[in-house]
Design the sequence.
């Protein structure tokens, strides 16, 4: 088995597989260069500035984000980049020192994807931070399978996809076996900061208000077929807890914790 | 045995008998309380059947149940928010 570790997309990556891994870091860097909201040269930054960009990779991820917005009923929304920046999350999280706070508002951004072309209309920016890691984990795993891998683990700071035999993955307050599946956790606890007024803010915005979601769920961990699906559903559950009732309709399972650390799960998680 | 000694001994025996009867009556009354059927202990505290606890705990969100107790396993990776 081969293993590589590196930092990318604001987190630590760990990849292990029974094939050669020399190309993985370069592939993740290539995706980050296209999708980063914090790099002014990225395709996403150009799109937010110029409102039209031709980039097949970006178009694919935007299409996936718009699809996720549809099937989560709007609980997942990548069109909140301007609101997130307005709340102070306008650079790599490690660099946030003195955020500016503006009132939030729902997004009225219009997104069109035609082939490799992405066009934005109306006010607002795209932020693919809620989907980029999951998309990239799936993309790396697809390429590992193309390279002949039969057992592989791709871990992007806790967004994990496993090819082959199940391994145990720790989740807040428990553990789950993950085999030929993916798992991701979202939380209002990790990426949080204080406004100038001392108000606690976090990065999971409620699309209906444009402000940090107020939720009884402190962490949501989702087991799904793909890392993208797990990441999207985990965020949607924190923003809209009532969607917990639909998780298994989406072929996924959820494990959530409340502010006291008590854990809850969907019925089939117990069978895992 | 003098008359006084006989009288004193009879009083002690009568007192003991009264205590035994009173204790028995208190226990019988507690067992007969309607609270028993609703899970009340003789001291009035709520008694919760651990097996049924999950069914009576309000859910955090619809579609969720209290999570099972974590098993001891060897964890290979950790899923966390990052």
Sequence:
């Amino acid at each position: 088995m081969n293993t590589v570790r590196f930092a990318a997309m604001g987190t630590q990556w760990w990849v292990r597989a029974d094939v050669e891994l020399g190309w993985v870091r370069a592939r993740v860097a290539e995706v980050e260069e296209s999708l980063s909201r914090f790099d002014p040269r990225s395709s996403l930054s150009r799109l937010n500035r110029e409102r039209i960009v031709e980039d097949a990779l970006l178009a694919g991820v935007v299409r996936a984000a718009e699809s996720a917005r549809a099937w989560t009923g709007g609980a997942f929304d990548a069109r909140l980049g301007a609101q997130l920046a307005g709340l102070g999350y306008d650079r790599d999280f490690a660099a946030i020192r003195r955020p500016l706070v503006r009132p939030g508002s729902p997004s009225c951004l219009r997104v069109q994807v035609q082939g490799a072309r992405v066009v934005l209309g109306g006010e607002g920016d795209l932020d693919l931070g809620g989907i980029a890691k999951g998309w990239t984990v799936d993309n790396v795993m697809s390429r590992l399978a193309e390279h002949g891998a039969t057992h592989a683990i791709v871990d992007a700071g806790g967004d994990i996809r496993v090819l082959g035999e199940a391994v145990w993955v720790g989740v807040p307050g428990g553990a789950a076996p993950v085999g030929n599946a993916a798992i991701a956790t979202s939380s209002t606890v990790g990426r949080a900061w204080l406004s100038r007024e001392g108000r606690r803010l976090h990065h999971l915005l409620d699309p209906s208000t444009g402000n940090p979601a107020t939720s009884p769920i402190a962490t949501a961990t989702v087991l799904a077929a793909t890392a993208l699906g797990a990441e999207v559903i985990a965020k949607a559950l924190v923003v809209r807890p009532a969607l917990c009732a639909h998780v298994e309709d989406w072929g996924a399972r959820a494990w959530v914790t409340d502010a006291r650390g008590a854990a809850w799960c969907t019925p089939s998680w117990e069978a895992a | 045995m003098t008359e006084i000694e006989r009288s004193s001994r009879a009083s002690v025996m009568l007192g003991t008998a009264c205590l035994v009867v009173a204790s028995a009556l208190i226990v019988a009354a507690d067992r007969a309380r309607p609270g028993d059927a609703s899970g009340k202990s003789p001291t009035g505290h709520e008694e919760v059947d651990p097996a049924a606890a999950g069914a009576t705990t309000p859910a955090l969100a619809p579609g969720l149940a209290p999570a099972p107790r974590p098993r001891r396993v060897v964890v290979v990776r950790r899923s966390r928010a990052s």
Q: What stands out?
A: The first strand of chain A starts at residue 2 and ends at 8.
